[in-house]
Design brief:
Layout lengths: L2 H6 L39 E6 L12 H18 L6 E7 L14 H6 L22 E5 L10 H7 L4 E7 L1 H14 L3 E10 L6 H15 L3 E3 L1 H10 L6
Parallel strand pairs: 1-2, 1-4, 2-3, 4-5, 5-6
The chain binds 2-acetamido-2-deoxy-beta-D-glucopyranose (5 copies).
The site of one 2-acetamido-2-deoxy-beta-D-glucopyranose has 4 residues, from α2.
Family: Belongs to the isochorismatase family.
InterPro entries: Isochorismatase-like_dom, Isochorismatase-like_hydrls, Isochorismatase-like_sf
Keywords: Hydrolase, Signal
Length: 243
């Protein structure tokens, strides 16, 4: 597997390759969570935040595949479940968006320019299946590179709200998820990725990349990969969220 290839072109999708789209529908096999499903004691504590990353127009490209619709349903249901908590914890959404129509964050020599050049203003909106709840205090941040906190107040918000644990959903697995796991891990957060709620769009050895990240790379940090069922159970076991 060539990770360098995987790192360079995830946002570029072709609809003819939809059938290869890899999401969490146990295809080619079920991802092994890092925490055994027999453990009934996982909790996120009280200072946790839910990160919903790059759920933007890109989602449309995978929406018609089996894996894509499973991903959308699982992630949308998770977001609704979080909003239904009393009180709701902090939810932060990221989108690829720029300070103006000239996209000044993208320079002629920035490697990310190739990736983001095709993201129009319309495509940078949160995909309609995913609800942003202003009343619940949800935050939507613009970002201009892979990492969810690039060029925005993500870290300021997490620190100010005394967050110690983050639970990640989003696409792509090799882009925003992998980059954000690494950076927040380095910043001392306890990081969980929900396997059902991330997807690797077709092309560039997507199945191998997806499996290697969720079963090899993230567990080796170590950070945790869990199922959406484990995440829901953990939320029920966690204290009322402080936000
Ligand atoms: C959670 O449960 C498992 C098995 O039931 C046990 O091995 C582990 O020590 C427990 N962890 C905590 C933090 O209690
Ligand atoms: C997915 O299906 C919908 C409704 O059938 C259609 O409008 C949309 O263009 C399709 N998207 C892709 C990427 O094929
Ligand atoms: C999430 O993944 C697990 C397999 O580990 C599967 O049993 C479960 O059905 C999936 N949940 C959803 C909502 O797709
Ligand atoms: C997920 O799918 C189930 C079964 O098809 C449906 O009842 C539910 O409304 C869907 N949830 C969301 C948030 O799309
Ligand atoms: C976020 O991106 C939008 C364009 O989609 C832009 O209008 C807005 O000014 C940006 N916000 C910030 C804080 O940069």
């Amino acid at each position: 597997m060539q990770l360098s290839t995987a790192f360079s072109s995830f946002l570029l999708l072709s609809s003819h390759a939809l059938s290869q789209s890899i999401g969490y529908n146990c295809n080619p096999h079920c991802i092994n969570p890092t925490i055994p499903t027999t453990n009934r004691n996982l909790t996120f504590g009280r200072h946790y935040a839910v990160l919903n990353l790059d759920l933007i127009g890109l989602v449309d490209s995978i929406a018609n595949s089996t894996a894509g619709s499973a991903f959308i349903n699982s992630t949308a249901s998770w977001i609704d479940f979080i909003h239904a908590q009393n009180p709701p914890p902090l939810s932060i959404f990221s989108r690829v968006a720029f300070s103006g129509s000239r996209k000044p964050e993208l320079g002629p020599k920035s490697p990310f320019t190739k990736v983001a050049a095709s993201v129009t203003l319309a495509e940078s909106q949160i995909y309609p299946a995913f609800k942003v709840d202003e009343q619940a205090g949800d935050v939507v941040l613009n970002k201009s590179r892979y990492y969810a906190g690039w060029g925005n107040p993500l870290e300021t918000i997490l620190r100010a709200q005394q967050i110690d644990t983050v639970i990640l959903s989003g696409l792509t697995t090799s882009g925003v998820i992998l980059n954000t796991v690494y950076t927040l891990y380095n910043l001392d957060y306890k990081v969980y990725v929900i396997a059902n709620n991330t997807i690797q769009p077709p092309g560039n050895n997507a199945p191998e990349v997806y499996n290697a990240i969720l079963e090899g790379i993230i567990p080796s940090l170590p950070a945790d990969v869990i199922t959406v069922e484990q995440a829901r159970d953990a939320v029920k076991r966690s204290g009322p969220a402080i936000y």
